[in-house]
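Researcher: Last one for today. Full complex below.
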Amino acid sequence: MATHLFLLVFTMATLYPVLWVIKMALTDASGFSADPWPFPDPANMTLDNFKEVMGLGDPKTSNLLFFRQLGNSLIVSLATAAVGLALSTIAAYALSRWDFPGKDRSMSAFLVTQMFPGVVMLIPLYILLSKLGMLNQLGGLVLVYATTSVPFSVWTLKGYFDTIPRELEEAALLDGCTRMQTFFWVILPLARPALAVTGLFSFMTAWNEFILAATLMTNEQSYTLPVVLQSYVGDFDAAWGHFAAGAILVSLPVMLLFFLLQKQLVEGLTAGGVKG
Amino acid sequence: MTLRALQLALFVIALGLALPAQAAEIVIWHAWRDVEETSLKEVAAEWSKRTGHTVIVNATPYDAYNKKVEAAIPQNNGPDLLIAPHDKLGKWTTMGLVTPVGIPMTGHLPSTISALEYEGTAWGLPLAYKSVMLFYDPEKISTPPTTTDELLSMARKHTGDGSYGLVYEASTAYSHAAWMHGFGASPYDADGSVHLDSDAHVASLRFAHQLTVVDRVVPKRTSYSLMTALYNDGKAAFVISGPWFVGGLERPIAAAPLPTVSSTGLPAQPFLGVDGVFLANHANEPEVAKEFMAFLAGPQGARIRQETGKQAVSWAAITSQDPILTALASQAQTAIAMPADPNVNMVFEAQNWALRRVNRGLISPEAGGAEAQAYYNNITRPPPEPANPVPYIILALFTLLGGAAFSFYPMLDPYERKRVWDHRWDYAWVLPSAFAMVLLVVVPFMTGAAVSLFAHDAGEYTFVGFKNFFDILLSRDWPITSPMSFYYTLVVTVLWTFTNLILHVGIGVALALILREPWIRMRGMWRALLIIPWAVPNYITALIWKGMFNAQYGAVNALLGVFAGANVEIDWFGQFATSFCANLITNTWLGFPFMMVVTLGALQSIPRELEEAAEVDGASYFFRFRHVVWPLLKPALLPAIILGSVWTFNMFNIIYLVSAGEPDGGTEILISEAYKWAFQRNNRYGYAAAYAVLIFFVLLAYSRGANRLVGKAVI
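Model: Here's the assembly. Have a good evening.
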């Protein structure tokens, strides 16, 4: 009973800021208020913030820009997950299975890149993408995000592949499968939890990023949602209601993914951890 | 093909080429928001209708605007036109980002014209002007004060019980400028040198000190949101702010020019900021762009901007009946144009530093003047002497050769060569990701790191060798104990990483242990709810928590007040311990679910029989955890812990958005300090890059050490 009570209190404390966001989104006040009660006053609830953020408020200024930007975010994030997975699964599989010279060094090289501070990379990256002609293109963002997510994905996937017994592949190879076929038809289906986890991670990398997106994209039509969200809170004024409504809209898809992939999340991360 | 057909074809092609020249497309960038943005789009639409040209209006979030402009235009990716405050001129003209247009500025207010003249040249066209002024609550104040003595006595009367007589951002140089000028001080001497410690400067600091520390009529920490909230609650008699303040209000407000400083008889003159439209260098359609500039700044554009955008427009013939804009117009008569000098940000940064400390009562106004001057001297120290690059090139070559020799040394062995050849197809599997990593991560980082050997000033790089590193590592500009020193920040960063990990792992493991117990009801629901913080993007988390830690309007203080049964007003960002805690709480909220999930997973592979056996033997819960569960859990958690520590070490978003380094840069970590040097202190990219390289080496050393400690290669 005491444990349940502890869980309840801890969960409430955890959810408090979330409730606060919901309250701000549903209230038509311009900012924070000193009231610690995290639920909105039912009499004053309004969906105006959501309507305005989605551009559906005033018919005169209504436009579909929000949905365009939501589409950008979805395209970029899904493509990042796909490209990130494609790059990292094959690398992780090779690193897990075959003992080629330089293997350990490449594994550690992948993780060393996690230590690069991003601050100094912004301008070189801008120049690089500009030379490649990929500025202001969603494809450019996808490539950058997918690469950023590769080290963690390789790390998780390699750990998971390590736990899959080699006998399975040996049997398949004996049956006349090529290495490719074994990989695609035997290993990948078994690694589903780890694929789900890494896919989710790559998706989130792209879904949440705003500094690169704001700098590399030159027009509003190609912004992703976090850039728009960031513009609600500036130096001189902060449209907290809009920010909160936008925050909810941005967080919902990721939360949904988390709930759907909960089981895989636990299993996929574990195995990676056990073997390191 | 006959000649005639050829001519026809040529004619058609020429027509095709000529068409775009007739109906051109120009691009304009801005960081305006809300109604100002709407009005700009309206002007663009109106002009398109008249001329047939198209205007593409692109908004960029304010925070990203300058970076984007400075990155895009030198690379030929910029717009045709830019809207920006005039104080950017110094920097942007030195960098060659904007070009003079030669359109006469007749018709505009003289003060806005002179603001757009920098070093004898007229740049762009003025659009609107902004400055702070004195707002007052007409329900409390009948006639606005004309002197600071009157202001002070009225403010005292309305202070107390959670109300403040005067609300303004007392600790920012921008707001303080009005008092600075009113006491006869100016950051720049006649010859352009900077002096921040004169008697007049000290007198103005003493006045700020009087308001915030002695009389306490001004709240200690103010932000735009707080000012709005206080005013809406009727808890602010006077507010010093700009026209943008009115937007968020729910109650009537009145405005007047700032009063005269009683002891000097001079008016308190705030800074005047003029938004102008500028022609970008490398514009695609400069001639058409100029036409639009003239339209936007001229009477038709100004009319729309004033009516829709509520702007105080610079076009002199258009006046407003709006009482706020009228007050702004009369304030603008005395306001002093913001200096456009490229190092004006350094002046502000130095004054902010001193103001924050004086207004918290930490130092006297006299010391404030001296500290501002010392701070300014430090951050504007001229770049190191250029160094001869030859020895460095030789050193780099040797390092490269040595590295290559080391890597390929095993290849001398024929057996090793055969092994590589036998495994040649294995490499193909790693190649795509390795190539992508090298191209998009390693190359940018190496380029960025190479910048650490240079000093950057307004677009020009000078080779200085290792001097940036010496400056940082020898702490030449600050005593080692100052928050600005590398070592101080390193200690804070290590403390930050360590405390975070303890909490993330501690809470994560504890929750996982609870959630694994079969007798817990609705385990799935608890788990799902506790994962939520992980699913929320971290910049959202950071901004929400920052709001919750607000001293007057934050939920944290309000909640503590409910439990304490008294009014709690902790100034969270006022001292190191609480400010650090605010960051820590935010990041813990964000980080424990990851550790919880990893632990839950790891626990699945630990057979319960072991524990049950221990239980039968009479082992207590903690004994079982310590001697049965933990030894099995540890190897699974270690990689996650080490990776987590690397992430936490570089957790920029939280520090930057929650405490922003307050107080006085004390809670800054290495990565956010590097960011400040790169983007907020005159773009000292070289210095910032040296910081980044040092961060990398610290982490590399840490991971090597951790591997040795753990006894296997984790990272």
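The mean pLDDT of chain A is 83. Chain A touches chain B through 114 residues (CB under 8 Å).
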